[in-house]
Amino acid sequence: MSKQKPSLARGTRDFSPEKMAKRQYIFDTIRAVFQKFGFQPLETPAIENLSVLMGKYGEEGDQLLFKILNSGNFSEKISQTDLDAGYKSLTSQISEKGLRYDLTVPFARYVSMNRSEITFPFKRYQIQPVWRADRPQRGRYREFYQCDADVVGTDSLLCEVDIIAMLQEVFASFGMAITIKINNRKILSGIAQSIGALGQESNLAIAIDKLDKIGKDAVNEELTVKGFTDSALQKLTPIFSFSGSNVQKLDFLTDFLQNSEQGKKGIAEVQQIFDWATTYGLNLENVELDITLARGLSYYTGAIFEVKANNVAMGSIAGGGRYDGLTDLFGLPGVSGVGISFGVDRIYDVLDELNLYPQSTQNSSKVLLSNFDAEVLPFALKVLNSLRTNGIKAEIYPETAKLKKQLEYADKRGIAYMAVIGADEAASHSITLKNMAKGTQELLSVAALVEKLS
Amino acid sequence: MSKQKPSLARGTRDFSPEKMAKRQYIFDTIRAVFQKFGFQPLETPAIENLSVLMGKYGEEGDQLLFKILNSGNFSEKISQTDLDAGYKSLTSQISEKGLRYDLTVPFARYVSMNRSEITFPFKRYQIQPVWRADRPQRGRYREFYQCDADVVGTDSLLCEVDIIAMLQEVFASFGMAITIKINNRKILSGIAQSIGALGQESNLAIAIDKLDKIGKDAVNEELTVKGFTDSALQKLTPIFSFSGSNVQKLDFLTDFLQNSEQGKKGIAEVQQIFDWATTYGLNLENVELDITLARGLSYYTGAIFEVKANNVAMGSIAGGGRYDGLTDLFGLPGVSGVGISFGVDRIYDVLDELNLYPQSTQNSSKVLLSNFDAEVLPFALKVLNSLRTNGIKAEIYPETAKLKKQLEYADKRGIAYMAVIGADEAASHSITLKNMAKGTQELLSVAALVEKLS
């Protein structure tokens, strides 16, 4: 085999120790909140049968699934006719498995397969990578982590309150100012009904979702193409222009949706969530009812959530909502669920940009023991063992080398202290401890060293 | 899309919350030891270019790599001629990427690609899944975690001492009695040389590795087939039959290998590792020099390690060794390294079989708040918030339901306490706390509840 310049596969990344420390800080913070709210960990395999994945993410999603070539002689039964039939039909002959595209469909598969063992309501969190054969670009990767919490088996709106509470707690822990946008699929349905476009709410939502980006006129144009009448667009006008507090919005909607049962149900749900959240003790200042929020909408049936960072130009950093019938696809009907997903890569970038990482995210050793005199190595090894026995992250420079080189090593590695051990130290059973940041040093006994670094 | 009975891909597994708790205990234990010894986390992508993976694991390994179908119209340029050329050549036309097969080759790629930023010696640990298209069987999976720690950029034997210390500490934490077997590639080379089969050490090692399983006669038979002379086999006899303490073995080898420079170097290395380990303070009672240990050997150049559980019939539960030239393959020569890999799935099974999991591996909520009277929900929500604000894992049953059902739920979920809140409790601003295991209950103020569960 020839020597080669190796490279990463497009859209994938290595995470160096420095990046890992920051990522672990993010994961640990979110995980701790999930657990405090009663969610338990679940992991599903990266490889799923394509029968589980295909058809769950729309036609584009099917294209973006990474598909795994069957093992063994996969091409044995392929003929020219198969080739002529095109790559899509060929794929089904030579590939039976694919990589997880999100955490939601595997979760639905798990719930469906284990329905008899699971205690419902089932609260699980899942932190694992997913894969999408998207065109890589800045901030978009082909392999990235998702970080989800879901409750299935209940339609209680207390779960929505928990989601708001978790979002607030996670981002407060990060010290990040955010806005939580909330909407309800039933309100969107009600709006469609009220403007005389019943059943057209998907097209309405897809268009209205772009209001921020393309503006009112372009949205109206898109809706016209989709068959919305002038009269419907006329009636829709106040929806675009309306602003105000959540209370004012709910008042407005109560009037606007007075003839839509669905719409009224949506308003009542939002109101109930706000009421319970307030009773629970949440401050709803950063929660905003946004009646244009749709988030794709394909499977949401109730609440819809989205979080944005206040002080950074960045897409949504978390999102979710209530869905019914996700496990229907796997033969288990009647399971309502609600979930939230944190966008770890974007949160990482926001924390970086706002310089919000705590200092302690470095996970280096606390102390490096010097190794420049082979004669005193026995004493140094004993000191090393004492430190570790007392739970202190410690290491010795593995080779006998000049002290200067070792000090540079400690500096580059971000190790806080250097324990210098020479002949004098060994003779007096003591250690010269150098504070790498301050440059100060002091002579300590082994016991004093252990105590200082504990 | 039709409803379907979903299934897992062959050789893959879901990890339920119960299993996750046990696995996290294993990972956390190993990770804590890695960090205490100065190793830092690294993660590499699951997807690698096949050019990085192919040719690194032998021909069988190439076959066992999971290969990913190229995106888009991969079959456009395929002709009947390509089909006729067979699936191996076809694979290279329709697949450029594969799934990580182990953590070592991606690590070598990372080191090679980032040589200018890395501070050597570089100590990293990596805990991630790998994939192999092996035939699944009991205890063998197609997707499984590896858990590795390696130091590269130094040939200091202090690193080998650290590995022995880490192995002892990890398994002591698990409460598991083990034997650490150690050997040295140079000793194996020396043996080959001493019996007049210089350069034949690979065949010698492969055969000798099977001694436990197939016995001396079968090993000799295999060696004969491989071209070992009768005289060589005659000289080899004492190697098979020799037993004794490590000191006795080293004495024996000193005599046996007196004419092999390589062999003498191997003995000196083992001796140095034992000496330093003893100085450091390790008890070497469970460390055994095993001159038949080879572990595939393909890339080991110095120390070879293997760990077995003493009280369970199970293959090795950890293994590793020193290698030189791993990054040679990627154009970075002269980097010596040594590493250890923990077999998490087997450790899981051993801990299960010996019933060694601590009780606290359950990660359920500590308390479930009842919800059987909608009138008192506001009080219950405030209690819930108080508990969580004080860091207590707590949840409320999301639906208003009969208390019996909720007690069953708490029981099945393994939640330790049920906080019963009815009209009386709400009126007196107190909670009836039921200990689920003992069945006892007591009336507590909110403050007393928080204190008791903190």
Quick overview:
The structure is a homodimer of 454-residue chains. Helix content of chain A is 43%, strand content 19%. Chain A is of the alpha+beta class and 454 residues long.
Describe this structure in words.
The structure is a homodimer of 454-residue chains. Helices cover 43% and strands 19% of the residues of chain A. Chain A has 18 helices and 16 strands. Chain A has an 8-stranded mixed beta sheet with strand order 1-5-6-11-10-9-7-8. Chain A has a 5-stranded mixed beta sheet with strand order 13-12-14-15-16, sandwiched between helices. A 3-stranded antiparallel beta sheet of chain A has the order 2-4-3. In chain A, a hairpin with an 8-residue loop joins strand 9 and strand 10. The longest helix of chain A is centred in the first third of the chain and has 20 residues, at 17-36. Chain A is globular and about 95 Å long. Chains A and B meet through helix 1, strand 1, strand 2, strand 3 and helix 5 of A and helix 1, strand 1, strand 2, strand 3 and helix 5 of B.
